[in-house]
Design a protein that fits this description.
alpha/beta, single chain, ten-stranded mixed beta sheet, 11 helices
Length: 465
């Protein structure tokens, strides 16, 4: 692993291709624009109707007022659908050269060859590449892009699409329902254990545009899966918007691990929504790293509906100059003997703002449930900000509940000690920050742990020494 800050080349994430596309919808939001997106995507009638109803909900809902200021977002300046000059293919050699080079530099094909059971790559609004190992096909696993799923598995999609995350949840979910495009669909049949991870990577290239991918995963009874999501975009001086949606259905006795590294550019508003519905004795583990983006509002949610259901969240965010990362976790205990563990860390530097915002709700029928929340914040200077805003709504006395929050600055004593052992001040600070982040990175597959450590090193540049 690279340890010297100067060894890391941050330019791989800022690759900009020429803004060439097969089709780009005009900016703004009107019923005519939604109908045009639906036409371009060959939607069935029920999906076109769904989009138009979602637009009506969007127009009625207000912007959220309790988090970061979103007033700079002007949907009249955002193109909500950009189709790249590429049709989806299962052959990497058929992907256009400029798009292929971007994903090559980000290491996507290499990861597939080494350690992944399936890969999907999305560029702007469309999935351009999809492949899956034959043994998964033989086991009945479905892994495809959402558009194909809508056409080929309509009953399965209709029964689940935006039922876990309904359009009236908040304004940006309604927006997503109206303009969604791309994303992944996964179905793991009963009892099937997918031993190696599946990955989808989302890349936004076009300026003044939005990405609204929809990920729908169903892990049937007794099955298991590890799904990895990666996201990045180059930096532009105009606002880009990411308002994706992730819906996870994990049936009785099933298991899902959902790992994400989000490395958006500093002009991105990241307003993603992720939820899981978890059955009896089933478990969902969330592993999340949030880097980049000007503003993030991201709070994955687990709904523990089955007795004995479990969830664990392990997340880190890193807010630098001009960044406001408002992240956290939500969990609702709806059944007895359920348990949740939350381990959240944030780092802020150069005036960045990192906020941990969370909800834990234990309902009256969730007796003998266990909840453990631990959030730690590390500030690297005197001008950064860190806030912890937990809401704990406990409706039964028969519960074990613990909540611990720590906010602190990097310790001068620790730095001095490491310097007496021969490290420079810069390396000492970098070592402390990596140690702080280590519980998160050790939960990731090795390639992603290396990427996360590299991202931390990049974020530290200019902040230490």
């Amino acid at each position: 692993m690279k340890t010297k800050l100067e060894e890391i080349n941050r330019n791989i994430y800022d690759i900009k291709n020429k803004d060439e596309y097969d089709f780009k919808i005009k900016k703004g939001l009107t019923p005519e624009i939604i109908k045009e997106i639906s036409k371009q995507k060959n939607d069935p009638e029920w999906m076109k109707d769904f989009r138009l109803k979602a637009l009506e909900v969007y127009e009625k809902l207000e912007l959220p007022t309790w988090g970061p200021d979103l007033s700079e977002l002007n949907m009249d300046e955002i193109a909500t659908y950009v189709r790249p000059k590429s049709k989806m293919t299962g052959n990497w050699d058929e992907v256009p050269e400029d798009i292929k080079n971007t994903f090559d530099k980000l290491g996507i094909p290499e990861a597939e060859k080494k350690s992944l059971a399936g890969v999907g790559a999305q560029y702007d609004s469309e999935v351009v590449y999809h492949s899956m190992k034959n043994e998964l096909l033989e086991q009945g696993v479905i892994y495809t892009d959402m558009e194909t799923a809508v056409r080929e598995y309509p009953d399965l999609v209709k029964a689940h699409f935006m039922k876990c995350v309904p359009v009236y949840d908040h304004k940006f979910v309604a927006l997503h329902g109206a303009v969604w495009s791309g994303g992944s669909f996964v179905y793991v049949p009963k009892g099937v254990k997918v031993e190696i991870p599946i990955q989808s990577y989302f890349r936004l290239n076009s300026p003044e545009s939005g990405q609204f991918e929809h990920t729908l995963i169903i892990v049937d009874e007794g099955a298991s899966l590890h799904f990895i999501e990666g996201c990045s975009a180059p930096k532009y001086n105009k606002v880009n918007l990411h308002a994706g949606c992730v819906e996870l259905y994990v049936k009785d006795n099933a298991y899902l691990r959902y790992s994400t590294i989000e490395n958006w550019s500093k002009n991105m508003l990241n307003l993603n929504t992720k939820k899981a519905i978890i059955g009896k004795n089933a478990k969902v583990d969330w592993v999340s790293g949030s880097f980049g983006s000007k503003i993030s509002m991201l709070y994955p949610m687990s709904i523990l509906n089955g007795e004995g259901a479990k969830t664990e969240y392990t997340g880190i965010s890193f807010a630098g100059k001009g960044q406001n990362l408002d992240t956290g976790f939500k969990v609702v205990h709806n059944a007895p003997n359920t348990s949740s563990i939350v381990n959240s860390k944030s780092i802020s530097k150069n005036g960045g703002t990192a906020t941990y915002r969370a909800l834990v709700r234990v309902n009256e029928n969730a007796k003998n449930s266990k909840v453990s929340v631990d959030c730690e914040s590390l500030m690297l200077d005197d001008i950064s900000r860190s806030d912890t805003i937990p809401v704990n709504d406990i409706k039964t006395d028969e519960v074990e509940f613990s909540h611990e929050a720590k906010i602190g600055k990097i310790s001068d004593k620790s730095i001095f000690y490491l310097m007496t052992r021969g490290l420079s001040e810069e390396d000492a600070k970098a070592m402390i920050v990596r140690g702080f982040a280590e519980p998160i990175s050790k939960e990731l597959p090795i390639e992603y742990a290396v990427e996360m450590n590299n991202l931390i090193n990049l974020e530290l540049e200019g902040a230490i020494g």
